[in-house]
Design goal:
The chain has helices at residues 10-73, 75-82, 124-215, and strands spanning 92-98, 101-107. By secondary structure, it is mainly α. It has one domain (6-187): Orthogonal Bundle (Helix Hairpins). Strand 1 and strand 2 (101-107) form a beta hairpin.
């Protein structure tokens, strides 16, 4: 706001001071929110890191179990059995609220790899492979959920940081400058009024002196 457009009134001064108080409260809330978001971000980062480590281990065990099943049953039988496995239930994605940020919630549903009577007499080695890759499937979904939430939290942290910076470095200094300007204008008006009173007083004294001389 240009200072020329500011009305140097006491009402405007009160309004500007109230805006400063509100701006400082908003700034504190934004800083608290940013701190909470950062804590949540690092907590999720640790969980995602642990899941990625778990995924590597599960993939290693999964491929080891596949190799074992292939050696015991042969690649042709392994491939023919794989064609009998039911399709994975479609993933359902909803939303959840994390510190005011909407993040996806991935629901894998119920994944039952042995869903028909034809699979009940599977060899143990193949059942073990199915079990291992079922765990991999769930971990991949968990990682996808966590990493998507991390990206959204990071965007919200940056957005909150920019808003707090704008309030702290632009809005509040501008409002404080407005208060100083209004007070400066008040001081000017007070000095002008004082000077005018002194001028009026001198004129009155001069007129009184003339009247006294005329009367004498």
């Amino acid at each position: 706001m240009a200072q020329e457009s500011i009305r140097p009134t006491r009402l405007e001064l009160l309004r500007t001071r109230r805006r400063i108080v509100l701006a400082k409260k908003g700034l504190n809330l934004l800083k608290l929110k940013r701190s909470a978001l950062i804590v949540e971000f690092f907590n999720l980062s640790k969980e995602a890191l642990q899941l990625r480590g778990s995924l590597q281990q599960k993939i290693a065990r999964g491929y080891a179990s596949i190799r074992q099943a292939e050696m015991m049953e042969g690649p042709t039988r392994l491939e023919s059995i794989s064609m009998l496995l039911p399709e994975v239930v479609p993933v359902k994605v909803s939303t959840k609220n994390v510190m005011g940020v909407k993040t996806p919630r991935v629901d894998a549903g119920e994944y039952t790899p042995v869903g028909s009577a034809a699979l009940l007499d599977l060899p143990t080695s193949i059942m073990e492979s199915i079990h291992q890759f079922q765990g991999i499937y769930q971990v991949v979904l968990d990682i996808a959920e966590k990493e998507n939430a991390l990206r959204r939290l990071l965007r919200e942290i940056e957005k909150t940081k920019r808003r707090a910076s704008a309030i702290e470095n632009v809005l509040i200094p501008r409002l404080q400058a407005t208060v100083r300007y209004i007070k400066f204008r008040f001081d000017e008006l007070e000095r002008d009024a004082f000077s005018m009173l002194k001028t009026v007083k001198r004129k009155m004294e001069a007129e009184e002196a003339k009247a006294s001389v005329a009367a004498a």
